[in-house]
Amino acid sequence: MDLFEEVLRLRRAGKRAVMATIVHTNGSIPSFESSRMLVREDGSILGTIGGGCVEAEVWAAAKDVLKAEAPRKMTFNLNNEASYDNGLICGGTLEVFVEPILPQPVLYIFGGGHVSIAVANAAHTVGFAVGVIDDREQFANSQRFPMAREIYTSYEDAFAKLEPNPSTYILIVTRGHRDDMRVLAWAVKTEARYLGMIGSKRKVLSVYQALEREGFAPDLFDRVNAPVGLEIGALTPEEIAISITAELIAVRRGAANLAHKAVVRKDDQSQDRKHAAHAAETKAEAPVESPVETPAENVENKTGAKAAAESVSR
After folding, report:
1. Is domain 106-268+281-311 annotated with CATH 3.30.470.20?
2. Which among 15, 54, 177, 194 has the fewest CB atoms less than 10 Å away?
3. Could you tell me the CA-to-CA distances from 297 to 122, 264, 265 in Å, in that order?
4. Which pTM value belongs to this model?
5. pLDDT under 70 in the chain at which residues?
6. Helix, strand, coil % (nearest 5) of the chain?
């Protein structure tokens, strides 16, 4: 099997891998410059960089490279001792560049309104492939979304055909709470790396509670970013799209300690389950929206930008 063909196959399947390449040699080594080895996510390999302990150490390092999604360079000084390399007596040095092979991230946007168009444009610009799903053909079409590589005009069709993986990002911005809940019920059971849903914090809680009454475990919603986006005071569809796209980038690059707008539910006598380090949200607390005691009183309150987002046509 050709190594580069396998790289293409893995990327198309949304799978990750690590490529190890000998980039410099000096003296006697058990391989040659430009030798390559591909380490798949399951640990299987294709190709070789000489075998022995060098290859074993690079194979072990591949796990860390994949976890960090960041490359590293490894230098080996072979010292003419047979014990170093399982009997291979060498007297040189070699440098191995170990880099992650990552599939293109794919953003599936459920809903074809104004915010969706702005998000699709912004996300496509920063390297995301885009798919759009809306049950109205006048909203989900190539004229409105020329950058989309996939367009579905049926939610059920999308649920049946899409197979989200760790390179998949899902954004829920449908035209109503009922469709939001329907999509979220499907999305939380997938392997998608990111789930985001637009709406006020009160609306988000009502969707969670409705699904919990249908039997969904509360912890399924711990990974949902809702309300979606970073807190930048966004008001217009285009500004909201920047807020959302910034959050997509933050998740993709592993950024921490950012002011996410996502609702944080608190357990009795326990710490927040996520985003606990976001001091900016703590400072932005506002009075409760209603004097009636509701579950929303157990979470941070809606910010002005979030209220504005609710009023924007999707």
Report:
1. no
2. 177
3. 34, 11, 9
4. 0.75
5. 27-33, 79-91, 266-314
6. 35, 20, 45
